[in-house]
Amino acid sequence: MSFTLNKSIIKEVCGETSYKRGEAYYKSNKVIINHYDENKEICEATVKGNEDFHVTVEKAKKGDVVAKCSCPSLASFQTYCQHVAAVLIQINYNQQTGGMSSTSNRNDQLTSGMFQLFADKPLRPKSKQHRFDTREILDIEFICTPVATRSGGALLGIQLKLAKVYFINHIREFLSKVEKRESFHCSNEFTYTPDVHSFKQETDAIIQQLIKMYHNEKMYEDTLEVHAKQDESMIFIPPASWKEMLSSLSKVEYVQLKQNEQLFQGLQVSKGLLPLHFEFTKGNNGGFTLHIDGLNRVQVMDMYNNALYDGKLYHLHIEDCMRLIELQKMMSRSNSNQFYIPESKMEHFVSKVVPGLMKLGTVHIDEVISDRVETPSLKAKLYLDRVKNRLLAGLEFHYGNVMINPLEEDGQPSVFNRDEKKEKEILDIMSESAFAKTEGGYFMHNEEAEYNFLYHVVPTLKGLVDIYATTAIKLRISKGDAVPLITVRRKERIDWLSFRFDIKGIPEAEIKGVLAALEEKRKYYRLANGSFLSLESKEFNEINQFIKESGIRKEFLHGEEVNVPLIRSVKWMNGLHEGNVLSLDDSVQELVENIQNPKKLKFAVPNTLNAEMRKYQVYGFEWMKTLAHYRFGGILADDMGLGKTLQSIAFIDSVLPEIREKKLPILVVSPSSLVYNWFSELKKFAPHIRAVIADGIQAERRKILKDITEFDVVITSYPLLRRDIRLYARPFHTLFLDEAQAFKNPTTQTARAVKIIQAEYRFGLTGTPVENSLEELWSIFHVVFPELLPGRKEFGDLRREDIAKRVKPFVLRRLKGDVLNELPEKIEHLQSSELLPDQKSLYAAYLAKLREETLKHLDKDTLRKNKIRILAGLTRLRQICCHPALFVDDYKGSSAKFEQLLEILEECRSTGKRILIFSQFTKMLSIIGRELNRQAIPYFYLDGSTPAQERVELCDRFNEGEGDLFLISLKAGGTGLNLTGADTVILYDLWWNPAVEQQAADRAYRMGQKNTVQVIKLVAHGTIEEKMHELQESKKNLIAEVIEPGEEKLSSITEEEIRDILMI
């Protein structure tokens, strides 16, 4: 280096402190000169330490020293850091001794460079087409070219040929014109015009990505130091866009890759190794030579984690990309494809460098070297002992006859490739195990850490090491036969059980200590013999859960036998009887089997019942009788139309003598629309049962309820029950809660009212026990069987599979397809329609306004505060889809769905179909009704204002064949109606919850239906209704997760769903 260095100059540019620290690096031989160029007056070096730092020193125009260092502290110094000082001291020394001669041993530098290159942490340098579009489709040819960067890697640039002929010389101008839909002059023969020309969907996707890259290009100008930076015909792919762009380019037809002036068709991605060859041969002077073939044909695209070889892309880790770049630089400086390795360094070379080379290509080692390079497999041994209350561990690595103590720093003389990955895995596990470490081995003096190592770490190590344990260690591990057990016996009284805790093989005197350890949530208990009893097994977890849920912890801790009412204990038994911790005596086993198989108790259907029950209905009756036998409640959750009412009437008939003897009538509570249906069914199937409806004005209801012992069944509605709850302050025999989802929210007045009712037996009837969340199931059970599930908060912590296990015996659900083989087919399909022009304009205006308002509120707090306003806006959009006249006064136009409905009705009526039309908007039903009146088409009509008794009469008349059309409000007529006289169901508008639509369709598709039922959903194309349908599909069948297998959980509408619906 031509400028002069001395101690004073170095202190001046580095400062006293940095000089002293740098001198310490220099004296410890930590400075390695990697590259020296006398002509360019530049020196590159590495300063070794806990972390290697890379230093560049060069001479400025004025003769000053200019230096860079990769250490993070350099920027905080006003003077240069200690690493720069160390390199300057080394340069000064070399100048004085002549050691900077350009004839320095190149092979030593290459060997040193290879060690550095394959160190553990190599440093990275800073560095749709429309369906009716009549425009001419233009093909674009994409030409991808790697362009070298100053760091030694390459970026991929893209150039375009329009119509595969006209080369785009100004790509950014072209992209700008395409984005602005302006013409672009390609040549005298051709001009791109957006009104005349278009692109294929796949091609357009790439164009849009290039436009985005063009907009973001300024962000990359400082970092993408490319030689061909000013080429106006090319745009470079940013690393962040590479994955997406590669995927897009693989989908188009015309792509070329240009490498070293050679064109390759398409982008080919190879999953194999690069076709590089590394060959080690024996040298003439006792050393070894490494020959590298193919390196000059590789272009490394480090920013994309890829390399190019003969037009093929190879994915590499970033570390390997950087190694390839540096390897190319090293070989370029040596002007050779091979270099010499001294024999003394070959062992280290094989262990450190060869594994890295094998990731880059094929490595071949000459047989002469193979004889010296031993490749025995690793056999690790771990020795365990206990001395003076300390756990001691010794670790050895064996390679054939060579034993290595990994904790000693001295190496071994033999040359072989060690299994560093496995060694590191073992050492990492030991390091994480709370051991103290010395060169001689490991030791531990902590009981809890010792337990953790023996019970958790040792099983992990067994697959990696051979373990040799002394008797002292084996005594610390308790035998696997110490299994906890809860013995359950049936008391003489039918409704009590007794529980007793025991552990096989453990003295009774120590069981209290084990229970105390469980109480303290400890992981183990140390027995009197010194061994650890693990409390983390599946069995102990079940025991702990049992004690926690049972509330009998205190009694168990004293080793006492605990007596518990059967109705309280069943929830524990049901969750545990499938495991190994319960020992049931014969009477308890019989009880469990009876609950699982209701037929065992042989309950007979009353011969006074005026109905021929199907097999599944008989089973449902037996299930209700079995639960009542043990004073349990339950939910009959059969699919709609399978006869839940009939099964309930059979139960009522079976307990009629008991009702009359005890003078405790049965109370039936249902929605208002079903009250008269219950009365009618009772008269039909059991006319001998004395039933009464508690309705009318308050005075009439009070008179009926004053003395109800003369009746067997009292029927009322949820609204009337809430008003008259004080009149029901008396015991009932059985409580039937029809459409039990009516109190799915436990905080409502309805839920509180039904909870107050006193009854010996309780049953909920519902086809949809879960609609929106599992809390609804809890709410129903909280009324019909409150002892089954824990409190509301604790229930929320239960896993779904645990809930399913617990409720399984107490929920009976059958689907139509499972039990009614003779039920005809149900065909469901959507019919879409395009909004009419005026309708579309109105929709677009309201959508834009709603989007703007919604964007203001889409953070957590404001979304919650403005959710009602947003949902109201969504309702407006749905009304426009149905018919703008629903809220736009004096709207003179029509509606696409309305016109489509009239066409469907004309077709259905011409083929003799009988039709139910559901809409949630009664005004929409009025619009439909006016048109039917205009065409003199008769129809029935039912909405929320239709009296309950009149509903039954209307349904009966329709089922008997009168009329072919029935207009029904979705909310008012979605449940409780039997309309099997219909064979076609039209859902004019969608509802958020698919279960509501399912209930509506099942008015026709139910027991008694003889014809195929067609369900038609009308949807306005390209609108919120399509998004609603997608939301329905993603949220349906939550019930199946707990009652039977199914889909994901339905939750309230979220911010993400609002964004998806409004496409923002």
From TrEMBL:
It comes from Bacillus cereus. It comes from the Bacteria. Residues 53-92 form the SWIM-type domain. Pfam families: Helicase_C (PF00271), SNF2-rel_dom (PF00176), SNF2_assoc (PF08455), SWIM (PF04434). This is Helicase SNF. Residues 897-1051 form the Helicase C-terminal domain. Keywords: ATP-binding, Helicase, Hydrolase, Metal-binding, Nucleotide-binding, Zinc, Zinc-finger. Residues 625-787 form the Helicase ATP-binding domain. GO terms for molecular function: ATP binding; helicase activity; hydrolase activity; zinc ion binding. InterPro entries: Helicase_ATP-bd, Helicase_C-like, Helicase_SWF/SNF/SWI_bac, P-loop_NTPase, SNF2-like_sf, SNF2/RAD54-like_C, SNF2_N, Znf_SWIM.
